[in-house]
From TrEMBL:
<feature type="binding site">
    <location>
        <position position="489"/>
    </location>
    <ligand>
        <name>ATP</name>
    </ligand>
</feature>
<feature type="binding site">
    <location>
        <position position="82"/>
    </location>
    <ligand>
        <name>ATP</name>
    </ligand>
</feature>
<dbReference type="InterPro" id="IPR000185">
    <property type="entry name" value="SecA"/>
</dbReference>
<keyword id="KW-0963">Cytoplasm</keyword>
<feature type="domain" description="Helicase ATP-binding">
    <location>
        <begin position="84"/>
        <end position="244"/>
    </location>
</feature>
<comment type="similarity">
    <text>Belongs to the SecA family.</text>
</comment>
<dbReference type="InterPro" id="IPR044722">
    <property type="entry name" value="SecA_SF2_C"/>
</dbReference>
<dbReference type="GO" id="GO:0017038">
    <property type="term" value="P:protein import"/>
</dbReference>
<dbReference type="GO" id="GO:0043952">
    <property type="term" value="P:protein transport by the Sec complex"/>
</dbReference>
<dbReference type="GO" id="GO:0005886">
    <property type="term" value="C:plasma membrane"/>
</dbReference>
<feature type="binding site">
    <location>
        <begin position="100"/>
        <end position="104"/>
    </location>
    <ligand>
        <name>ATP</name>
    </ligand>
</feature>
<comment type="subunit">
    <text>Monomer and homodimer. Part of the essential Sec protein translocation apparatus which comprises SecA, SecYEG and auxiliary proteins SecDF. Other proteins may also be involved.</text>
</comment>
<keyword id="KW-0067">ATP-binding</keyword>
<dbReference type="InterPro" id="IPR014001">
    <property type="entry name" value="Helicase_ATP-bd"/>
</dbReference>
<dbReference type="GO" id="GO:0008564">
    <property type="term" value="F:protein-exporting ATPase activity"/>
</dbReference>
<keyword id="KW-1278">Translocase</keyword>
<keyword id="KW-0813">Transport</keyword>
Length: 763
């Protein structure tokens, strides 16, 4: 039955530092009672078990019935630690469970429990469509035995399929797809057109990734705008021939770029204007954005080009970020750089950040392999605590110290030698790289050395399940861009475990990181691929002093002449510290960006909620008709009651949606322009609030005024339809996610550029 209670308690006390995680002791006390119910439940037939599931109340009965349903439906008996995880989710915590410990089944027991406790329906929010479909289909036999219905939603689901899936007791859906459904529902003009019911409970898979890394990502619903043109697309052609050093310089951290005098002169000569003249601010902005795309965004690192379109790569997960685009014209600039037509950005009709969407659920819990490191942020942004669930079997993986080399070339050579050495013995090796370009370069080097390998990166992530499943096979070498959220276990000996003992004798799966990521959590998730469920395994990271992380965040901490051996391997403790320091700095930077972005989002989210409540009243009552009867009694009083209600509702909803879109556009401009106030020593956040609050206060009376004006100007008959007149909504809408702009906003770049220009003039 797994590890002893004594070990579990010791492990828990070791991990649960005071104030960092919750105490599991009260939940552990329930485990004997759960086990005591096992014999009785095993004796029931399926119908009797389903009846018992429908009557279960309380953690003990829920876990006991859930365990028996899993045993029958999947031939898997949940371990005690999985039930601890389920009870942690039921109590509204984020459960940290190591890779391979069975989070999917844990979530199933928890979802069933939430329904039984009256917290349904339950949405299991996943990182992508593949996991939503896989987990729903995989767990369906368990849900059926428990008397629950289960559905799933993906990007291709029709409105009716979405309605049917959300009508189930438990729905598996990617967080972005759920958010897009919410945004679309906020624009319906008939209650029957909605697909998503009232939000109740969310179980968030890969909670640290969704709730922290992706939290500030806005989900956007956009509509077509006729005659839309992007000046950045034209500017991109002008910078294509510029050369680094002569026409522009790139900062050491790789996050900013500036024209040299020669580059600026070349741009002005091509355009025939003075870029710093007030009337040419738009062109100045466009060429700056185009230069950033040209110099700082790299193909097969930041994005790939596939089927004639630019697809962004999620730097935290090493896969294509579906429906993601850069803001501030960067998307169009990259498309122009690659010789592609610009995709329409459209007019924003509705937007909500992932963090704000998740906060709409009255009950939220989650699970991930790496929660403790972001425990403070989960508490700060979601008021959630972390419960560290001990492993069922002690982890015996051997984690070696980093191997740090002076140069990238020395690191790459040593990396290939290490892989070649273990491959010759038959030990499976999994290499995690930082980006697509590096994965393909390493694969080429391995092939040249006579080491066959399989590559998994953003270009073929649709094959990931099959590739990962065989990564533990005898002699396998797998090169992958990051493993966070890949969602497939690696079994020793391959998917059929044919050579399990043979591979175990060699030391199990050997995980190698080709560099440190910006987040320790991503490194830990890569390590966690080895040593699952007590299997042997090992891990090591190869780092160079030329790696971007070290150069950006620890260049000043690296000694000028560190101690090293003849192969370039650094043996200086100060360098070890510098690498750790660089990672902590990178994490701190991302945390501060998250906090700062959320500060701006708070007021917008409050306004969105207030307007959503007003829209709900308009949609579900006759409040608009009552208002028109008061304001225009003569015309309104002559109309048929049903026609008045229908017309008033349609007109009011149209103007509310129209004005909200205009308000979002205005706030976007304010958000960009407010940074100019920093030049005047004013606080940008205060200035943003000073502009945003009055603008919203003017919104409500303006909705009413426009509604009255449209009503008085319109001729109504029995066949009147909203699109007969001026209430025409966009004929096409689409959804996308706004990718983090790593270089700041357009005006941030302009300010920096202007500052450099002024500094140069003063000298």
């Amino acid at each position: 039955m797994g590890v002893s209670q004594r070990f579990k308690s010791k492990f828990r006390r070791f991990l649960q530092r005071p104030g960092s995680t919750v105490d599991l002791a009260p939940l552990e006390k329930l485990l004997p009672a759960i086990e005591a119910r096992e014999a009785e439940l095993t004796a029931l037939d399926d119908a009797e078990l389903t009846a018992a599931a429908g009557a279960a109340a309380g953690y003990e009965e829920i876990c006991a019935v859930g365990r028996e349903a899993a045993r029958r439906g999947l031939d898997q008996r949940p371990y005690d630690v999985q039930l601890l995880g389920a009870m942690s989710l039921l109590s509204g915590k984020v459960a940290e469970m190591a890779t391979g410990e069975g989070k999917t089944l844990t979530a199933t027991v928890a979802a069933y429990g939430h329904v039984r406790l009256g917290n349904g329906p339950v949405h299991v929010l996943t990182i992508n469509d593949y996991l939503a479909r896989r987990d729903a289909q995989w767990m369906e036999p368990v849900y059926t035995l428990l008397g629950l219905t289960v559905g799933w939603v993906n990007e291709a689901s029709t409105p009716q399929e979405r309605r049917d899936a959300y009508a189930c007791d438990v729905t598996y859906v990617s967080v972005s797809e759920a958010g897009f459904d919410y945004l679309r529902d906020q624009l319906v003009t008939d209650v029957e057109d909605r697909v998503q019911p009232a939000l109740t409970t969310a179980i968030v898979d890969e909670a640290d990734s969704i709730m922290i890394d992706e939290a500030r990502v806005p989900m956007v619903l956009a509509g077509a705008v006729p005659g839309e043109q992007d000046p950045v697309h034209a500017a991109a052609a002008l910078v294509r021939g510029l050369r680094k050093g002569k026409h522009y310089t790139v900062a050491e951290d790789g996050r900013s770029v500036a024209f040299t005098s020669a580059g600026l002169a070349a741009m002005e000569a091509k355009l025939g204007i003075d870029l710093y003249d007030e009337e040419h601010v738009a062109q100045l902005s466009a060429v700056n954005v185009a230069l950033h795309a040209h110099a700082l965004l790299h193909r097969d690192v930041d994005y790939i080009v596939r089927d004639g379109s630019v697809e962004l790569v999620d730097e935290m997960r090493g896969r294509v970020a579906q429906r993601r685009r850069w803001p501030d014209g960067l998307q169009a600039a990259v498309e122009a750089k690659e010789g592609l037509d610009a995709t329409a950005e459209g007019e924003v009709l509705g937007t909500i950040a992932m963090q704000a969407y998740i906060a709409l659920y009255p009950k939220v819990c989650g699970m991930t392999a790496t929660a403790v490191l972001v425990g403070d942020q989960l508490r700060e942004f979601f008021d959630l605590e972390v419960a560290v669930i001990p492993p069922n079997t002690p982890c015996i993986r051997e984690d070696e110290p980093d191997r740090i080399y002076a140069t990238r070339a020395e690191k790459d050579e040593a990396l290939i030698d290490e892989i070649q050495r273990w491959h010759a013995k038959g030990r499976p090796v999994l290499v995690g790289t930082l980006d697509v370009k590096e994965s393909e370069g390493l694969a080429a080097g391995l092939n040249a050395a006579g080491v066959p390998c399989v590559v998994l990166n953003a270009k073929n992530d649709d094959e990931e399940a099959a590739i990962i499943a065989e990564a533990g096979a005898y002699g396998a070498v797998t090169v992958s861009t990051q493993m966070a959220g890949r969602g497939v276990d690696i079994r020793l000996g391959g998917s059929d475990q044919t050579d399990q003992e043979r591979v175990a004798e060699l030391g199990g799966l050997y995980v190698i990181g080709s560099g440190r990521h910006d987040s320790r959590r991503v490194d830990d998730q890569l390590r966690g691929r080895a040593g699952r469920q007590g299997d042997p395994g090992g891990s090591v990271f190869f780092v160079s002093l030329e790696d971007d992380l070290v150069v950006r965040h620890a260049a000043d901490s690296v000694p000028a002449s560190p101690r090293m051996n003849a192969d370039g391997l650094v043996t200086d403790e100060q360098v070890d510290y510098a690498v750790e320091h660089a990672q902590r700095v990178a994490e701190g930077v991302n945390h501060e960006i998250h906090r700062n972005t959320w500060r701006y989002s708070v007021v917008i989210e409050q306004q969105r909620k207030a307007l959503a409540a007003r829209r709900e009243r308009l949609l579900t009552s006759d409040v608009a008709a009552v208002m028109l009867l008061e304001k225009e009694p003569e015309k309104a009083g002559e109309m048929d009651e049903d026609l008045l209600a229908r017309a008033a509702r349609s007109i009011a909803l149209y103007h509310l949606d129209r004005l909200w879109a205009e308000h979002l556009a205005e706030l976007s401009e304010v958000r960009e322009g407010v940074h100019l106030r920093a030049l005047g020593r004013l606080d940008p956040l205060d200035e943003f609030h000073r502009a945003a609050v009055p603008a919203f206060n003017d919104l409500i009376p303006e909705i009413e005024a426009r509604t009255i004006a449209t009503f008085t100007e319109t001729e109504f008959d029995e066949d009147w339809q909203p699109d007969d007149g001026t209430l025409v909504r966009p004929t096409a809408t689409w959804t996308y996610l706004v990718h983090d702009n790593p270089f700041g906003s357009e005006l941030d770049r302009l300010i920096a550029s202007i500052g450099r220009r002024l500094s140069g003039a003063s000298r």
